[in-house]
Amino acid sequence: MAEEKIKKVSIIISKGSLEGVYPGLIMANGARMEGIEANVFFTFFGLEAIIKKKMDKLKVATVGNPAMHIPSILGILPGMSAFATKMMKKEMEKLDIPPVSEFIEMIHDAGGKLYACKATVDMFHLTKDDFCDEVDDIINVAKFYEVAAGGQIIFT
Description:
The chain is of the alpha/beta class. It has helices at about 20-35, 70-75, 80-95, 100-110, 120-125, 140-150; strands spanning about 10-15, 35-40, 115, 135-140, 150-155. Strands 4-3-2-1-5 form a five-stranded parallel sheet, sandwiched between helices. Strand 3 (about 115), helix 5 (about 120-125) and strand 4 form a beta-alpha-beta unit.
């Protein structure tokens, strides 16, 4: 029996930290490189990844992040998030992982579709002008389900 291949993925990015955004971007880029249709839906703080003024300034969350392997109290120290972010970006650079803006551009140029959540855009008082040019549209959840129909939905 032949394996059925995935033809379409729709990835939801809801976290605005460096470690919250990159998994979705990596998955979307990987999908496009495999010829899989990819839609990325940015909601709540995930919008940080597509806001022009913020997309390349994302930070690592050091408070309440057990994967940091430090006591949470240390995470609140001034400069801890900046230090962790610098270290993470340094490691990513060694692996030739691009900054968020470049990654977004790569996904878009490869045919991936990028959407902002209308409810969140309205709640945060944002407009289309706040977003990078690669954002295809601002859509509601009903439209997202329409776009995602027939594919896998992945929540990162």
